[in-house]
Amino acid sequence: MKSVDKRSEFNQICKDIKDIKIQGARNIAKQALYAYELFPTIASMRKLKSLRPTEPMLMNVLHRAEEGEGYKELLTHFDSAQKKMNEAVYEKIETGDVVMTICHSTNVVNALIYAHKKGKRFQVYNLETRPLFQGRKTAKELSNAGLDVTTFVDSAMGVAISKEQGTKHVATVMVGADALMKEGVANKIGSEVLAQIAKNEKVPFYVIADSWKYSPSKVKLEMRDFHEVWANMPQNHHIKVGNPAFELIKKKWISGIFTELGFMRYKTFLKAVSKR
Ligand code: RUB
Question: Is 23's C-beta closer than 6 angstroms to any atom of ligand 1?
C-alpha cells in the first residue's frame, strides 16, 4: 500500500473511532491496533490513545504492540478469549431463559449467538440505548442469527425486568464492559440502573468481557457532544444537555464476570488480574 493511502486509511480509522462509527471496546482496540500497524510511530500511538478515554483495552493492546508483541499474535487473543467466554456463558444459559442486555457488545452478542447455535433456546430482551441506538445493532445481529429478540425503550427497563409488571420473567442480565476496575465496571450509560433493578428483582447481573479491559487505575468516563441527544435544538433556548456516555457499575451489583479466565465473582477476577 502506498504511504498516502496508508495515511488516509489511518486518518479514516481515527475519525470513525472518534465519531463512534467504530464502537464497542473490542472493535475499537482491534481497529486501533490495525491503524498502528499502518503507522507504528510515537505520534500515531499518541493520537490513537487519545481517541477514547474510557477504553483500557485500546491502551493495553497498543502498549503491548509498543512493547514488541506482534500484530498477528495480538489479534489471535481477541478470538481465543471470545471462545473461552462463549463456553462459559453457554454453561450458564438455560433453554427457556430470558436474557436481558443493553447497548452493543461484541463479547455479549458473540456469546449469545454461540449458545443459540449450540442448541440453547432462549429469548433476549434488549434496550435500544439512547442516544445512538446501539441496541438496534444488537437486535439486528441477534435476529439475523435466528434469536428471538424483543427491544424495549431504555426507560422501560424496570417494567421489562420486573416480576410483577414484566412480560416474561428475566433469568439473567448480561452486559459488556469498557473498563474493568477495582471499583467496578464502566459500561454504557444505563448499565448501573439496570444492575440496581436486577438486584432488586433478584435477577443475577453478569458482565461478559475480555480481561484486557482491566485498568489498575480509574478511567475517565466520557461526556459526549449534545448533538447526539438533541441534534436540532432551537437556537432561541438556553438549554444545556448532559450526555454521559458511560457509567460505573459498582462491584456490589455484579453477580459474576465471564472472561477468558472463566466465570468467577468480580472480587476473584480482580485478585487474578492484579497479580499479572
Ligand atoms: C459500547 C459499550 C459496550 C462495551 C463492550 O459503547 O458500552 O458494552 O464497549 O463492547 P459505545 P465489546 O457504543 O459507546 O462504544 O464487547 O464490543 O468490547
Answer: yes
